[in-house]
């Protein structure tokens, strides 16, 4: 039998007892100096950390969502006032028996940006319309048969090719009627007067090749504007050099460049189909200069003996 262990009398400790008592508490974990320094460093960094705008926005959104998802506590003054008026948790406000009464509060929608209240709806409407137009376009492409697709592609290639030939015909006309062109035929103009078209205003140039000159002038104007934009030299705007040339004045911006006016005649000509424009230029070359655009040669007389015909098909 186990021997009884004598207990302490009158609350005094029994120092003669042989009983092995369990320790009342475990030894606390001893923190080393390295661990203590690392802990203090982490705490200091946490205290010194300043949250960014994005972190503050996330925290605010999180707090807002938590508040919106939390029902009204019964200890709040508002809940107690509604309870006195007959409100019960899970029921709707207002007259009893109303099936359409709301049982949940309105959802809060945070408006971002500085646009007006109706701008978001307008954006959504435009997105829906663009999506509908895109779907309609895709449907039209799917409905297009293989033959129609090939026909459309062939027509586009032919129009592009004809447009290129129009530019070629305009360059040929420039060679005849430009600054370096030959003298006019005696049957049409004074044989002693050279044709110097480039020194005239563009609206006085033959409309058949006027577009070539306008395009060239527009490109030159754009090139000059880019050049002026990239200049890093500084110069006072009020400085005036009497010996400065006109080109330098335009480059420095001290002299305004005259802009070309609108040309309704040229706009009307450019609105024509490429095939019609090419036909007019080819006929003009034959009648005015006895030149066949398809043969690429000029004939000595109006009979143009040896030329197969007026169209490209007649030349094979």
Give a description of the structure.
- The protein has helices at 33-48, 53-68, 77-84, 119-143, 146-177, 207-229, 246-252, 264-270, 274-289; strands spanning 291-292, 297-298.
- With 316 residues, the protein is mainly α.
- The model is unreliable at 1-5 and 183-198 (pLDDT under 50).
- It starts with 32 loop residues before the first helix and ends in an 18-residue tail after the last strand.
- Strands 1-2 form a two-stranded antiparallel sheet.
- Helix 5 crosses helix 6, helix 5 (146-177) runs parallel beside helix 9 (274-289) and helix 6 packs across helix 8 (264-270).
Tell me the layout of helices and strands.
Layout: H1 33-48, H2 53-68, H3 77-84, H4 119-143, H5 146-177, H6 207-229, H7 246-252, H8 264-270, H9 274-289, E1 291-292, E2 297-298
Antiparallel strand pairs: 1-2
Helix pairs in contact: 5-6, 5-9, 6-8
Q: Which residues form runs of ≥5 with pLDDT under 50?
A: 1-5, 183-198
Structural class: mainly alpha
C-alpha Rg (nearest Å): 47 Å
Largest sheet: 2 strands, antiparallel
State which percent range the strand residues make up.
under 5%
Estimated helix fraction: 40-55%
The end-to-end distance, rounded to whole angstroms, is 132 Å
What coarse outline follows from CA principal-axis ratios? elongated
Number of helices: 9
Order of secondary-structure elements: HHHHHHHHHEE
Beta-strand segment tally: 2
Order of strands in the sheet with most strands:
1-2
Mean pLDDT across every amino acid position: 76
């Amino acid at each position: 039998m186990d021997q009884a262990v004598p207990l302490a009398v009158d609350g005094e400790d029994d120092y003669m007892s042989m009983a092995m008592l369990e320790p009342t508490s475990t030894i606390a974990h001893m923190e080393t100096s390295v661990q203590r320094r690392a802990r203090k460093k982490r705490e200091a960094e946490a205290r010194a950390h300043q949250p960014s705008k994005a972190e503050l926005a996330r925290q605010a959104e999180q707090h807002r969502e938590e508040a919106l998802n939390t029902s009204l506590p019964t200890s709040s003054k508002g809940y107690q006032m509604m309870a006195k008026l007959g409100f019960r948790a899970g029921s709707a406000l207002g007259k009893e028996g109303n099936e359409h009464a709301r049982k949940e509060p309105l959802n809060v929608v945070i408006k971002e940006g500085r646009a007006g209240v109706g701008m978001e709806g307008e954006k959504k409407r435009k997105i829906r319309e663009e999506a509908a137009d895109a779907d309609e376009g895709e449907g039209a492409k799917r409905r297009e048969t293989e033959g129609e697709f090939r026909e459309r592609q062939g027509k586009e290639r032919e129009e592009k090719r004809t447009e290129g030939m129009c530019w070629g015909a305009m360059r040929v006309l420039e060679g005849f009627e430009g600054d370096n062109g030959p003298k006019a035929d005696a049957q049409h103009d004074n044989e002693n007067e050279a044709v110097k078209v480039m020194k005239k205003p563009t609206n006085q140039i033959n409309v058949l090749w006027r577009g070539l000159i306008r395009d060239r002038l527009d490109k030159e104007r754009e090139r000059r504007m880019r050049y002026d934009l990239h200049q890093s030299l500084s110069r006072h705007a009020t400085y005036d050099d009497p010996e400065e040339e006109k080109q330098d004045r335009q480059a420095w911006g001290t002299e305004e460049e005259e802009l070309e006016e609108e040309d309704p005649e040229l706009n009307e000509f450019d609105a024509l189909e490429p095939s019609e424009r090419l036909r007019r230029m080819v006929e003009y070359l034959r009648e005015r200069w006895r030149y066949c655009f398809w043969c690429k040669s000029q004939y000595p007389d109006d009979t143009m003996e040896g030329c197969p015909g007026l169209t490209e098909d007649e030349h094979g």
